[in-house]
Design the sequence.
């Protein structure tokens, strides 16, 4: 079993080091750090996949470059800070990883960051959906 990528482990540890209420604040900070979509998606919203598991409208797109490095792009409304926060955690945590590293991320990662008591199970399911759809797109684009 491979180790969790360093950035995702760091994010998890940052959450677990905080009290429950402070974890929500950190999630809010992540929501504010979600990068804007690259300009090339403005004319091609059809490239983005809706993450149906999320209550809020969140969309993702994965690119795999020639070096098999994964690039995840996501968008979610500012009025949905929990969803934006989860998307931002994955965008930041998976940045620069190889196909193999992204595919090795355990599907239960969303359960390990200490938010299961702070947010609803439906929201955690949404983050799991984000990760699952990201990994599926990585498999498709690297085949």
Sequence:
């Amino acid at each position: 079993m491979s180790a969790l990528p360093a950035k995702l482990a760091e994010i998890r540890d940052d959450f677990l080091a905080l009290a429950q209420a402070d974890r929500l604040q950190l999630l809010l900070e992540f929501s504010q750090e979600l990068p804007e979509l690259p300009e090339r998606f403005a004319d091609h919203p059809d490239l983005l996949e809706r993450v149906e598991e999320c209550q809020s409208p969140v969309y993702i797109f994965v690119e795999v470059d020639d070096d098999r490095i994964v690039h995840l792009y996501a968008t979610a409304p500012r009025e949905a800070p929990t969803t934006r926060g989860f998307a931002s955690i994955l965008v930041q945590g998976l940045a620069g990883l190889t196909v193999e590293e992204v595919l090795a991320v355990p599907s239960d990662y969303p359960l390990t960051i200490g938010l299961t008591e702070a947010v609803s199970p439906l929201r955690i399911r949404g983050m799991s959906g984000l990760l699952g759809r990201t990994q599926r797109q990585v498999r498709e684009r690297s085949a």
In short: The chain has a mean pLDDT of 92. The chain has one domain: 6-142. The two ends are 22 Å apart (CA to CA).
